[in-house]
Design brief:
Elements: E1 9-15, E2 32-33, E3 36-37, H1 38-49, E4 53-58, H2 62-69, E5 74-77, H3 84-92, E6 101-106, H4 114-127, E7 131-137, E8 146-149, E9 155-159, H5 166-169, E10 173-182, H6 183-191, H7 206-213, E11 218-222, H8 234-254, E12 258-259, E13 265-267, E14 272-273, E15 278-279, E16 283-286, E17 290-291, E18 296-297, E19 301-304, E20 307-308, E21 313-314, E22 318-320, E23 323-324, E24 329-330, E25 334-336, E26 341-342, E27 347-355, E28 358-359, E29 364-372, E30 374-376, E31 381-382, E32 387-389, E33 399-401, E34 406-407, E35 412-414, E36 417-419, E37 424-425, E38 430-431, E39 440-441, H9 453-461
Parallel strand pairs: 1-4, 1-6, 4-5, 7-11, 12-15, 13-16, 14-17, 15-18, 16-19, 17-20, 18-21, 19-22, 20-23, 21-24, 22-25, 23-26, 24-27, 25-27, 26-28, 27-29, 28-30, 30-33, 31-34, 32-35, 33-36, 34-37, 35-38, 37-39
Antiparallel strand pairs: 2-3, 6-10, 7-10, 8-9
Helix pairs in contact: 6-7
Bound molecules: uridine-diphosphate-N-acetylglucosamine (UD1) and calcium ion.
Length: 462
């Protein structure tokens, strides 16, 4: 077993606030950036620290927050949100007393990096301080608690904006709400908290003042302003998403993916893309998606929860919950709904919609078609305007088409129906009975010619 440096560390994540400034039905920490809820973004580096225990303080919408946070954590309910200090008090009642160090993090700072948290832990351990706290210098510190230092430059207290004097508001060093405490000192500090301030809350920040007034040391560790961005409203949510997007795109480009316009490319956390794939502008790649090497995706394309193998070309299309095999062509203007599987070198072309449909190797559905609940064999061509009539208003039925068949343009296949191998359907046919291998099915009334029709009509009108 490798050494576990954080085995005696408890981590408390504060996620009980409803986030009034979001003006939302959804609890704040469930809002997402690049496909992951804020709480999950914060928990990623925490997990990597391998601490002794993790507690998440939950309140409003707690069941959903717990679900998003996942397993392996303790959830502590803070029934009434009386402030960050109160949230830590409630959590501390449930924490294992064996753990001598406590890290506190807010649930609304999704850009924090693992290395920064490691620096925060190391700073306290190296100095044996009562606490280390993460701070940042911001051009615009509005909304954050300010870090007040004494004449020697040591941290003396944190003043919340609502309680700050005009002069204190000028301070550009802000509190990030991320700390590591010596457990005993923290308990002393919490016991001394009162709610005598502008917001009538128990501020965790007041613990710092309690420490310094008792002669205990508080070490400030600095981080970049970008990393500590706290999400209180939707403007900050958009800022954080934009920064996260930049990180994702940069990493992908460094790994060999061409992104034509990174500012117009929206890729979720966790998406994997292979070397030499080209991502054109206005592409959204979301959910559990993997795209292999040598593909061209976009412009204007959404791929969600799908797998795309190498050398595929997808243009102006929407693909959701599908598997696309090597060399396949999609679009322009295809919509592939969940459950489709396009075989190698196959095609779903212009204005084609598919649902729960398998297209075999080399088969093509090039134009204006709907294929639903269909299984299409290999090297088959489905002509323009063909439709599987898979729904009778109550139930869905399957269509099967064999290998090397030719479905004439505008064939309606009334499911359930089977068309064999090497079969042909005549253009415009309504196929409602099975078509045996090697045969032609044609369903048309004979064409009639009425001579001189226009002339006759005119003379009638007179
Ligand atoms: C807090 C800090 C502020 C700091 C800022 C950094 C305090 C008093 N203020 O302010 O100094 O600059 O973070 O982003 O600590 N929460 C609970 N229970 C509560 C209240 C809050 O769990 O009763 C949670 C919230 O869900 C949130 C976190 O604690 O995830 C921070 O609370 P928030 O209200 O966002 O504090 P800020 O005003 O941002
Ligand atoms: Ca906040």
């Amino acid at each position: 077993m490798p050494p576990q440096p954080n085995a005696n560390l408890s981590i408390i994540v504060l996620a009980a606030g409803e986030g009034k400034r979001m003006n939302s039905r959804l609890p704040k920490v469930l809002h997402e950036i690049c496909g992951r809820p804020l709480i999950a973004c914060v928990l990623d580096p925490i997990q990597a620290l391998a601490p002794g225990e993790v507690a998440v303080v939950v309140g409003a919408g707690s069941a959903d927050v717990s679900e998003a946070a996942g397993t392996g954590k303790r959830f502590v309910e803070q029934a009434e949100q009386k402030g960050t200090g109160h949230a830590v008090m409630v959590a501390m009642e449930k924490m294992d007393p064996a753990f001598i160090e406590v890290m506190v993090l807010p649930g609304d700072t999704p850009l924090i990096n693992l290395e920064t948290l490691e620096r925060l832990i190391a700073a306290r351990r190296n100095t044996k301080a009562a606490a280390s706290m993460l701070t940042a210098e911001l051009d615009d510190p509005t909304g954050y608690g300010r870090v007040v230092r004494d004449l020697t430059g040591e941290v003396s207290e944190i003043i919340e904006e609502a309680d700050a004097t005009v002069a204190q508001r000028e301070i550009s060093e802000v509190n990030t709400c991320m700390y590591v405490f010596d457990r005993d000192s923290l308990e002393g500090g919490l016991a001394a908290l009162t709610a005598e301030n502008a917001q009538g809350e128990y501020y965790l920040t007041d613990v710092v003042k309690d420490f310094t007034s008792r002669g205990l040391t508080v070490i400030a560790v600095q981080a970049s302003g970008e990393e500590i961005l706290g999400i209180n409203d939707r403007v900050q949510l958009a800022q954080a998403a934009s920064i996260m997007r930049g990180r994702i795109n940069t990493e992908l480009m460094r790994s060999g993916v061409t992104i034509l316009d990174p500012d117009q490319t929206y890729i979720d956390q966790g998406v994997r893309i292979g070397r030499d794939t080209i991502i054109m502008p206005m592409v959204h790649i979301t959910g559990e998606t993997t795209i292999d090497k040598g593909c061209t995706i976009g412009p204007c394309t959404t791929v969600n929860d799908s797998t795309i193998a190498e050398d595929c070309d997808v243009q102006y299309s929407v693909i959701d919950g599908c598997e696309i095999e090597a060399g396949a062509n999609v679009g322009p203007f295809s919509r592939l709904r969940p459950g489709c599987r396009l075989g190698p070198d196959s095609k779903a072309g212009t204005f084609v919609e598919m649902k729960k449909t398998t297209v075999g190797r080399g088969s093509k559905v090039p134009h204006l078609s709907y294929m639903g609940d269909a299984q299409i064999g290999e090297d088959t061509n489905v002509g323009a305007g063909s439709i599987t009539c898979n729904y009778d208003g109550e139930n869905k039925f399957p269509t099967r088409i064999g290998d090397r068949s030719f479905i004439g343009s505008d064939t309606m296949m009334v499911a359930p129906v089977e068309i064999g191998d090497d079969a042909v359907t005549g253009a415009g046919s309504v196929i409602y009975e099975d078509v045996p291998d090697g045969s032609l099915a044609i369903e048309r009334t004979e064409q009639r010619i009425v001579q001189g029709y226009k002339k006759k009509k005119k003379s009638k009108g007179k």
